[in-house]
Structure formats: C-alpha cells, structure tokens
Amino acid sequence: TTANYIVVSSLMAPVVVALASNEGLIIPLVAVHMFVFYFGILADDTPPVGLAAFAAAAIAKADPIKTGIQGFMYDIRTAILPFMFVFNTQLLLIGIDGWFELIVVIVGALVGMLLFAAATQGYWLTRSRLWESAALLLITFTFFRPGYWWDMVYAPTDVLPATEIAQFAEQVPPDGKLVMMVKGETIDGDLVEKAVQLPMGPAGPGSERLMNAGLETRVDDEGKVIADNVMFGSPAQQAGLDFDWQILDIRVEADRPPKQLMFIPATLLLALVAMLQLRRRRAGAG
C-alpha cells in the first residue's frame, strides 16, 4: 500500500492538479492524493495489475484471470465514487462550517452509499424496475454532488475585475488564498489559460501581500493587468504564474444558499420510488 501511494502520488497527482487548473478548477491537494490513491488500490484486484486478485486466486486454487475479471466486475461500479469527493470536497470533511453542516454531509453521504448499492444491485425494497434503478442513481448523484445542480441555479464564484487585485488581496483572510484566472505563454510556447491559487500569508496591505507572495503587477496601455515580475522560487511561481502573463480576473466564493437544499427534491423522488416499491411488495405478498 505504501509503495502504491508513493507511485501514484508521484506520477498521477501532479497531472490531475495541472489538468484541473487548466480547466479553471482548484482542487485541494488532499482530495487529489485521495483520488489517485483510490485508483491505485483499485488496481490491486483488477487487471492488468491485479496483485491481490492473483494472490487470492493462488489461495483459492482458482483461475487468476477469472478471479481478476470477477474482481473488476465488483469494483468498476465504485470507480465513479472518487470523482464525487474531488468535485465535492466536503465528503472529505474539507470546508465544513459547524456541526449541523457536518451532520448533513455525513447523513447525505451515508444515504448516497446505500442507494448506490441498491441501484447497482437492482433491488431496494423489492426488485427494482429499470427506471427505478436509474432514479436511484440520479438520487445518489444528487446526495453525493448537490453542487452540480446548484451551480446551474447560483454561480459558485463571483468574477471580479483584475484591476482591483490589490484591494481583493487585502480582503483575503490571514493565510487564505487568492484565486485568479491567468493567461500566458509557457516555456514550451503553448498558450494556456488556467486558474491559479496564490497563498496570501499574514494580513496586511494588498500590494505588500502580493509582493510577499512573489508577484508584482502593472497595468498596460490597454488596461490589462500583467504579471510584471514573478520572483524565482516564490509562492507565485510555484502556483504556476510566469513573467508577463495576463491576469484576467479574480474569483471569490459567491454568497449563495447552501447546496444541500438539493437534498429536498432528491428525497421527494426517493419517497415516490419507495411508495411504488412498497405497493408492489404488498401486492406480491398478498
């Protein structure tokens, strides 16, 4: 397990972080490492690696290929789960404010897991019809990833002008992070546009906090905010900024109602499925 984690975290985690950043998505490193580690563990009993499957086959004196394929059939249904906690990091207890929110997240995750098992097995209160299994999967997705639907109603972030970067940097809480979209040319000559998360450090004037992070900016004749200087080895350089890149805008978390409100329509749909299945079960028992 230790060797597994070392390999996947070294080879895959930086790739996931870079791909997410290029799509404007900031994912906590803990979530990324859990994501790649999950698939590393999953590889132990699925082909073509299948170390655990081959070991189990040797103990049971069974065919290792058939054992690996059977393990794959059991495990592939759970391969979607790591994507849930990457896009909803509250499942990893990141970004939870207060006991009530913690309880809601835990209960939602527990219900989601039970319904996922019921949907993939095709049986809940009684044998599920095809549309009921599809409905259970939809409910499961809502409990795991309520933000997917909520983002369609309320934007997750507010887009603010880059020309006011110093003011926004001053408003960031101590040791918080400033998220911004940047655009520029890499050392390989590729034009990229991605999200960058810049650590701000202790509280203070915005320009001073930016300087301490290794970033100096200027506004050119066209009103564009340019990274005039990115200090070598600074947090700004480590975050992926480079000299002469354009800062497009600043992203701050939007003030919006809690996304867990999506649990309400999901629960109503679940109640409908439960009512229909209970009716069929009673009819079959009669």
Oligomerization: single chain
Q: What's the average pLDDT? A: 89
> What radius of gyration results from the CA coordinates?
24 Å
Secondary structure class reads alpha+beta
Helix content: 40-55%
The SSE string, one letter per element, is HHHHHHHHHEHEEHEEHEH
Q: Which regions have little confidence, pLDDT < 50, spanning 5+ residues?
A: none
By DSSP, the count of extended strands is 6
Reported for the largest beta sheet, the result is: 6 strands, antiparallel
Shape: globular
Overall domain count: 3
- Report, as a whole number of angstroms, the end-to-end distance: 52 Å
Share of residues in strands: 5-15%
Number of helices: 13
Task: Give a description of the structure.
It is built from 13 helices and 6 strands. The chain is an alpha+beta fold and 286 residues long. The protein has 3 domains: 1-87; 89-149 and 258-286, no CATH class; 157-253, no CATH class. Strands 1, 2, 3, 4, 5 and 6 form a 6-stranded antiparallel sheet that branches. A hairpin with a 5-residue loop joins strand 4 and strand 5. The protein is globular, with a radius of gyration of 24 Å. The mean pLDDT is 89.
